[in-house]
Design brief:
By secondary structure, the chain is mostly beta strands. It has three helices and twelve strands, in the order ββαβββαβαββββββ. The strands form two sheets. Strands 1-2-5-4-3-6 form a six-stranded antiparallel beta barrel. Strands 10-9-8-7-12-11 form a six-stranded mixed beta sheet, with no helix packed on it. Belongs to the RimM family.
Length: about 170
């Protein structure tokens, strides 16, 4: 399992003092309000950051990161990801998974590996597992109970209900 989890993305400047709007990937913000340090990943580079405060409600809180003191500085980092240690990320409920844990999982039907999850597309109806099948095709599997029989994160395997889902 990956040690670091992406918890938020910098969206845009807020005000004139270097605050920024965040997008919370979990939809929760209480864990973000407790952060004092994190890793900022932008264009493949990572660096340690200090978080002065996070405020607001909803999926888009406002944050102040030490050293970002103008709207221009924030704008340059639009799209940067905030990563934290797994224990500082939002706690999972039953049936919830970190995207980082789903990527790389084998997709199986009746104990036969049929492919590997290469990415997860967040969608309003349900997340989609972008899966490269062993025959080279790429399919998108909705992450819903009608299609998914079991998710076994320790074994890195997602079992499907039936073969037809891969057509």
């Amino acid at each position: 399992m990956q040690r670091l989890i992406v918890v938020a993305t910098l969206k845009s400047p807020h005000g004139v003092k270097g605050e920024c709007k965040l997008f919370s990937h979990s939809g929760e913000i209480n864990h973000l309000k407790e952060l004092t340090a994190a890793i900022l990943r932008f264009n493949g580079h990572e660096r340690q950051i200090e978080i002065e405060h996070v405020r607001g409600t909803g999926k888009n809180p406002i944050a102040k990161i030490k050293g970002l003191d103008s709207p221009e500085a924030v704008k340059e980092l639009g799209g940067a990801e905030i990563l934290v240690e797994r224990d500082k990320a939002s706690k999972l409920s039953q049936g919830e998974y970190y995207i980082a844990d789903l990527v790389g999982c084998r997709i199986s039907v009746s104990e036969t590996t049929r492919g590997v999850v290469v990415s997860v597309w967040e969608n309003s109806a349900s997340d989609l597992l972008e899966t490269k099948l062993t025959d080279g095709r790429v399919v998108h599997i909705p992450m819903i109970d009608q299609f998914i029989a079991e998710v076994d994160i320790p074994q890195k395997c997602i079992h499907l209900v039936d073969e037809w889902i891969l057509q």
